[in-house]
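Q: I'm teaching a short session on how sequence maps to structure, and I want students to see two examples side by side rather than one. Could you give me a first protein with its sequence written out and its structure tokens following it? Keep the formatting plain so it prints cleanly on a handout.
A: Of course. Example one:
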Amino acid sequence: MAVRITGVKKGSPAARCGIRAGDMLLKIGSKDIADVLDYMYYSAEGRIRLTLKRGDKFLILTVRKGEYDDTGLEFETFLMDKKQSCRNKCVFCFIDQMPRGMRETLYFKDDDARLSFLQGNYVTLTNLTQRDIDRIIEMKLGINVSVHTTNPELRCRMMNNRFAGEKLGYLRQMADGGISMNCQIVLCPGLNDGDELRRTLTDLGELMPHINSIAVVPVGLTKFRSGLYPLNLFDAEGAGKNIDLIEEFQQDFLNRYGTRLVYPSDEFYLTAGRPLPCGEYYEDYPQYENGVGMVRSLSDEFSEALENAPPLTEKREIAVATGAAAYGLICEFADNAQRKFPQLTCHVYKIVNVFFGETITVTGLLTARDIIAQLGGKNLGTELLLSDAMIMRNSDLFLDDLRIADVERALDIKIRTVPNDGGKLLCAMLGK
């Protein structure tokens, strides 16, 4: 397979060799190049031989560079070809629960093993072939896997894919090949919880030491589920039962492997009305991006920052808007900050998710329209703080395609977006 070179960085090793935009990259050494993984892996050495096609001519050029240094070639896309899309129709898929009329990119279901290695995305393995697995093992690529269940028949049913069960065999192949894996389980009441969760955790434990961590997260349900598989949310009792089951496995894994390995997401503790564990419980926070330990980390960061914060010398009045799940925590932060700094007035507002439905409580899924509708006429002080999780990465767009400036105009307030970091949140509250 040939990949078109769209640009060559000025002064790069490739430029010094005379490679041009429009050349076709065919091979590095003796290896065919199909995508970014091939390119990165086979171009890592300090001296590489490139086979190119320029028009009707074939060229073989030797490029010298520092080991692991960039060759300087640019391609049409980051992956050098198209993203691989998901072939499943999972009963819990969030994308299937979105309304019509949103921007097209929000409906794309990515299931690309290359992005799992490069960006931490989770993949189901269902669109991988044996050749893909062999390449993962050859290149020693760590991977994140959406397992959900190790019961083959149940996995086929949950994913609506007749191949989903047999693809579980890839887990053993990758473990035997020394591949490091993180796993996630989206838990659905009456489907893969209880005894089925027990089976899944038992099976994954047998793949140690090649499983780094396992996150168990509850299914999220929007109001747009007409015609979809009937699912329910976990209530307090159900959430508590699954926490107990997971903690039973944690103790066993801790005794056998020196790690708790599996973690329930923060949402389970909030739903069950149980206090969140201490920071040490989460070890090195391996599943932070899955909402595991995020609340504890945020709380610890805020407390440490508050203890060491310099005096606030001027009066300051601000507002923070947050989702229902984090509302109590943010209120606690604001109260603690105002006690230490009497000059600070911090209004905290809970935004109910009308767009997706009130069952969606996470801050990152709030829309600009809900913020505008629920904050209109409220006392916002001189600045409104919003989590940057509401904003599309590398842009200023909310999920509903309104921009930060649109919200600022509608509410007549300056907006500051804040990363998910307790120390930075306090700095923003204090105007630092």
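Q: Perfect. Now a second example for contrast.
A: Example two:
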Amino acid sequence: MSIVKAFRATRPTRDMVSLISSRPYESYSKKEREARLDYNPFSFLQIVNPGYKYHREISGQQRFRLVKNRFLEFKEDNIFIKDDKPMFYIHKIVVRNKKVFTGIVAKSSCNDYLNGKIKKHEDTISEKENLFSEYLKTVNFNADPVLLTYTQNQEIESIIDKHSQNRAEFEFTTTSRETHYLWLLEDEDDIKTIEENFAKMQSIYIADGHHRCASSALLSEKMKAENPEHTGDEDYNYFMSFLISEKQLEIHEFNRLVKDLNGLDKDEFLIKLDEFFKIENRGETYYKPNKKHHFSMYLDGEFYSLYLRKTNYNFDNALEELDAQILYRTVLKPILDITDLKNDSRIDYVKGQKDMAYVKSVIDQGEFRVGFGMLPPDIEDIKSIADEGFVMPPKTTYIEPKLRSGVTIYEF
């Protein structure tokens, strides 16, 4: 049984939403961020970066308290309003008139995360969990929903389709050429039907937002311990989520760039690769794999195809079938001596949208020595790894949609 509920969102007024909505803070370069802070006094960045108005960096609890102050100021100025009854929010994102993502903004149960009904496929870092849980405890709101995915459900999809035929409460386009629509789903019968259908699901999966989810769960445990009258119905027992059918997710890979060959010359390196791969030199012909367990490699101005020799590799579980794990076990760790995929400065990662042409360009410029490309995992790979209790190597997936901050806000 998965608990997904309607809630009372705090959200921008219709005339202000396009000005308030922002990408997550970390996704902006310093120059981009400063331009938006300079020229848009209503950007959500003004709330999450409150020290900018004082021309100084502010951190820790002082920053958290100022974030709360900025948020309260926006509420006092009626830039944000709070809905008077619980509802679901249908959010549709159209990216460059091509890709369409539609799902439900709701509140999901922290207990479902803690007991494994909401399943993860990435590790989280305790330090980041603790820091963000302290942030949430101070500011008392969440403006960035966790992206959750579920097996397509016809009843839920039919209700979404029905309500999205009406005029949207919000419709705005961003400078990234994304058009956003938001509908208020207020019908009590449809709300009940959606909640009942989610309650029948054995598992829901985190697609993006592992640290946000873990931090909310950590906060709920702290608040429970501090509240002698805890009932389980308090708002701190939930976190804001954007639930989307797995059929709609778009999953991209991360390609790998490595700065050196760990003291090997080119021929020595190729000989070591031959133990695990059938290697074909494709010269200057661009190559991108089209099958799992096939890899592309760019080295010294030439492309190579690497086909895994399955007689020399054991598929003991879902993780070992993952191409990113195969590359780590056969190349990165034993040959190139890269054991810490998060922190080793010799390795870098490139989103698959830039493909091997970008990998070629940075290697030709001398920034890196060798690059590797692979296919992205699919949703069944992600679910199998989560179901078996494993986590993926860092930078295995880049999953869309990417959500914006400040469109809906969950206060607790």
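Q: What should students look for in example two?
A: Point them to this: The chain has a mean pLDDT of 95. Also worth mentioning: The chain is about 30% helix and 25% strand.
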